[in-house]
Design brief:
- With about 120 residues, the protein is of the alpha+beta class.
- The chain has one domain.
- The protein contains three helices and five strands.
- Strand 4 and strand 5 form a beta hairpin.
């Protein structure tokens, strides 16, 4: 029996990572943040302690695609490990949780260190 699964996701809801981390040899050289937020508008504010937008922290510095308008908040690492995120009400909070998760990853910890965050 053949099972076909429909894919109704519009590509307009997917914002790819601005950089890829090909040197690690993972099948996907980027992470994916799936979020219930409806647009990237709220990701245009600065990450606390920086002059870098939330979007740029995720998409450029942390090699993370952002998929908006999803059913739930999840982060998929480069090795496809799935992390359930809290039901968060602000883009800043979901970015901070994502940064924390990535910072605890083997390769992610160096990526976090390379961002100038003033505490």
């Amino acid at each position: 029996m053949l099972s076909l699964q429909g894919y109704s996701q519009d590509s307009i809801n997917q914002f790819e990572a601005l950089r890829l981390k090909n040197e690690l040899g993972f099948q996907k050289p980027y992470r994916v943040l799936k979020t219930t937020f409806k647009s990237l508008e709220g990701f245009q504010t600065y990450y606390p302690g920086t002059k870098i937008t939330l979007e740029k922290i995720l998409r450029y510095h942390l090699y993370t695609a952002i998929h908006i308008n999803q059913k739930e908040n999840k982060l998929f690492s480069m090795d496809s490990t799935e992390f359930q995120l809290k039901n968060i009400t602000s883009e800043e909070e979901i970015t901070k949780e994502t940064v924390s998760l990535i910072g605890n990853m083997f390769f992610g910890s160096d990526e976090i260190k390379s961002i100038s965050i003033n505490n």
